[in-house]
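## Example pair
The file below holds two records. Each record gives the amino-acid sequence first, followed by its structure token line.
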Amino acid sequence: MIGIGCGRAGSISNQTPVREIKRTLAQALDQGINVIDTANAYGGGDSERIIGEVVKARPHKAFIVTKIGLEFSGNMKLVALMKPLLRLAVGNSSGLRRALLRKRGRMISHNFEPSNLSAALEGSLRRLSSAPIGGLLLHDPTPAVLANDEVIGLLAKAKSDGKIRHFGASVDSPEAIDAALKVDGLEILQVGMDLAEKLNSEAVVKRLADRPIAIFVRQVLRPNGAAVDQGPRLPCQAIPAALAIPNVTSAVIGLSSRKHLEAAIKAVS
């Protein structure tokens, strides 16, 4: 199946009107695409808010996956207050867009302290207006974080408390894949398309055969490491390639318009 990635929903650099993003999400849900991927850091929380508003009218159609573990500095929170004006300015200046993206990267950091993760989960629950959340993932954790009993215990408690249905990790390295597969109770593993081939190794295939873990592949249309001038891969090629990888449950596609959604649906028809 395909999933909808909402990494740019609510972003300053995204010129797609919010109403069009909402219509795209609503159409996806109405056409049976139920996986929606986001994070508490996307759009400074606006991605989750947008999803929450759409899903409110379709509470039984969506399986929302969100991620926690990233946080913005105080300066980025000030930038968020000026988002409407900045979005207008970015639309008229590609140079400003690049500068803001660079600055944004410097204003984000990881924080896997249990108290921060607990607060982040509560914030996601409020913005999504949805409980339990379908899947809660650690956002790019290191192997050390994945081996931290207090962190994993917090996720397990959130599940037992009925706040989430499943927990897992979104990882960016082969070492993190290996560490994630050792976590008791982990049910979702998200990897980039550039790492997906690692799932074909004999050791990984054996582990996946021993336990039910859903594999979500992200960055399907533009894998990490792909040159900017290469442009995105065509959905008709990229989506089937991702879904053909053994054990892959969902190919997560970043979409903002109904035109892109229709192309993605056609690719798997």
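Second record, same layout:
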Amino acid sequence: MPTLTTTVTAAEASGRTTTVTTTVAAPEPAPASSEDGNGITFRYWSCQARGQLARYMLYDSGLQFKEDVVDIVDVFGGGKWPALKEDPTFSGAFGALPTAEQHGEIVNETQACAQFVAEQTGYMPKSAMGRAKVVMIGDHIYEDVIVNIAYCIWEKREWERDCIGGWAGPTSGLPRKYANLEGILAKSTSGFAVGDAISMADFAIYFAVDLMATLLRSAGQESGKTDHVGEQAYQVLIGDKPSLLKHYAMIAARPNLVAHRSTPEWKDYSRYLTGKGAFGEGTVEGGMGATEKTHWCILADKLVKAYAAAAEAE
């Protein structure tokens, strides 16, 4: 079987770099989907948010599937969504996206879709405890990282109270969650989050770090400064976590993910975490509040200040 080799380098806060070279067997193509619905159809909006974890696993696995990227500006902004929401063949029993469909049956809900895909792609451990740990990590990231950031971007939650901080203090939100993930990986002898093989948990961690390495890190880069606020925020949140950086580089080097991230689809929906991002400045004009891009700058600024305040309090 042919092999593919990819090298990815991740920067650390100290200025050093972590370089991971991965050589893996090129995956054999899965049998083609038949026309009677035996293949998976995964449907989600043209953003990352609730659909990206499942997408990563589907693309990485080499499984043949159909991706239905729903243009949020056209469908939601164009007034087509109310009718599609009530169409169970499009948006499932719960009238929401994402959906995963196979054999004519449709699953709703983010985590249910992700776990279904993980089962289909072989990214769930065999043991009950292993599976529970994978779900634990996935829920931790989805509920305490992704959802909180998304709701703050939509201005339904508050950055300090609901995302960066929490009941345990001003840095008990995002800073604590990423520290938790660092702790899990630091104890791993295999490099993977659970056991000795890649699982849904690894793709969830990769997703959580990639958001910070791309959307957060680019916040404020228009200033032209090398130490713009996004870079500062990324370094205080991720830069001192060598296990997360090494893991991020390892997953990023997987050939099918490298290929996926060069596609037009990826370049389209990777620009935004939420559907709000696709509307750009139109969110201000449409009464939806500040743009997603503005909110990444707000998060970056607040993270830097929260870490500075915590350091002063020590």
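Notes on the second record: The chain has a mean pLDDT of 88. Residues 145 and 174 are 6 Å apart (CA to CA).
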